[in-house]
Every structure is written in C-alpha cells, then in structure tokens.
Design goal:
Radius of gyration: 19 Å
Number of strands: 8
Shape: globular
Number of helices: 7
Strand content: 15-25%
Largest sheet: 4 strands, mixed
Length: about 260
C-alpha cells in the first residue's frame, strides 16, 4: 500500500485533533466555524484548489478530494465553508483575467474568504431563469437583484455575483462580477435556519449598487460558462464530502458493534 501524500496525512491529523472534538458543539449551537479558518489557511488549504502562480498550494486533484473528505469526516460544516470558498476562487481563476487572478487570488488563498452567489429565490438548478440584472452606467455597472442560500456571504471579503447583462440572451446573457462585501447597496440578511450543517451559515442577499467595470470577470456573457465549469468541480467536491461522512459513519458503526464506541 502506498503512503498518502504528506499534506493528506497532515490534514487527517489536524481533522482528528482540532475538528472532530468540537464538531457536534458547532452544530448544536449553530456556531459558525470561523475559529477553524486560520488553521486551514496555515495548512495551505484555502488555496488547495489553485496553482502556485496565484498563491495556491498546487496539490493534485486526488489529494484535494482526500483533503475535503478528511475535513468532512471530522466536521462537515467546515468542509462546506471551505468548498464554498473554492467555488468563489474557482470562478475568479476560470473566468477572470490574469490581472484579476493576480489581484484577488493570492489573498484568498492565504485565508480571505470568498462566496459564490448564483442561486436566487426563483432560480436554483436553472440559472438561466435568474432575474438579477446589471446595466452599464458610464465606466461601471448598476447591479440590482437578490440571491438566496449564499454560503459564507456575511463573512466573505469577495462575493462572486452572477447577473444578467443581456436579459434577452438567456444563459448567454449572464455575466459574473467579483464584488467586495462592503460595497454600498449590498445588503446581507440574517443567516437562514437550516436542518443540518449549522456551523456553515447561508444568507440571503439583496443589492442595488454601482460597481466599477474591473469587477466584471472576463467578458460580458461569459458568466454562465464560468458557473458551469465551477460547478463541475464543486460536484466532485460534494461527492468527496459524502465519502468523508460515510467513512466516519462506518467507523462509528463498527465501533458500536464491537462495543468500543465512545462519543466523547
């Protein structure tokens, strides 16, 4: 049997030592997992999905999925926050210009949290139905609309927001914008009440704001293609989370059957 990548072994040790003992408390108290983020950044995990030229850890795909599985097996809420952050950084890496990548990604890989705002109250699995809009205003855009169930939004420094710049073009009219959280006109509501993953908060957004053109990621109309590429990665990460949770459940079930189970 081959030895695991050193970073995977380190993440597994961290997850057992730091995440697993407090995961239940975070869920019971609906307590956001912010106290775990500095350690994730210190291990290089906030940029594990990115190449080194933009500040990432440059780990391979298999190692990344084992990292996500290890974290999810100890604290699914922490894994949810981390993978939601990956959706934002993937959006900038896959959809942004080289200048935007260099301006935004190194700090995000070092720990500045990101959020990915695609879902709306009436447009979830079909983003082409979104009603949020962006209109050109001189050297910028006016964004108006609302988003729902946006992970990390109140804690993120950068929120990638998808809106229609050409409402008549369907999916081809969607563009993506990397928006600083403190932008005037951006309203972030109270965290939604969820049935699980209560340490990973999700929020509604409302916005009527004017932003500069350099917030747009890539060309107008490229947002849908970017979102679909990002979600392709995200679906694999969700599968890795499920694997990590299943591994933990199996280990606990075996311990119960053997009479060695201890929930402390």
């Amino acid at each position: 049997m081959t030895e695991p990548d050193p970073i995977i072994a380190e993440v597994r040790r961290f997850a057992e030592r730091e995440l697993w003992p407090v995961a239940a408390r975070h869920d019971e108290e609906s307590r956001w997992v912010e106290d775990h983020l500095p350690a994730l950044a210190g291990l290089g995990l906030m940029g594990a999905n990115l190449p080194s030229e933009v500040g990432g850890a440059d780990v391979g795909a298999e190692a990344l999925l084992e990292i996500v599985a290890a974290i999810a097996g100890a604290c699914p809420a922490t894994a949810s926050v981390l993978t939601a952050h990956y959706l934002a950084t993937d959006s900038i890496f896959l959809g942004g210009t080289p200048e935007q990548q260099q301006r935004l990604l190194p700090s995000m890989a070092a720990g500045a949290l990101g959020a990915f705002a695609l879902t709306e109250p009436g447009a979830g699995s079909n983003p082409a139905d979104m009603t949020s809009r962006a209109e050109r205003t001189g050297d910028g855009y006016r964004l108006r609309g609302a988003k729902q169930f946006i992970s990390n939004a109140a804690h993120a420094g950068t929120i990638v927001i998808f809106v229609k710049t050409d409402p008549d073009a369907g999916a081809r009219g969607i563009s993506a914008f990397a928006v600083p959280r403190g932008m005037p006109g951006l309203e972030i509501g109270a965290p939604e009440k969820t049935m699980g993953l209560k340490g990973a908060h999700v929020f509604p957004l409302g916005f009527d704001m004017t932003i500069p053109s350099d917030c747009r990621l890539g060309e107008e109309g490229s947002g849908f293609r970017t979102a679909m590429r990002v979600l392709d990665n995200g679906r694999v990460e969700v599968a890795a989370m499920a694997i990590g949770i299943a591994r933990r459940a199996l280990a606990l079930a075996v311990a119960w059957a053997k009479g060695t189970f201890n929930d402390k």
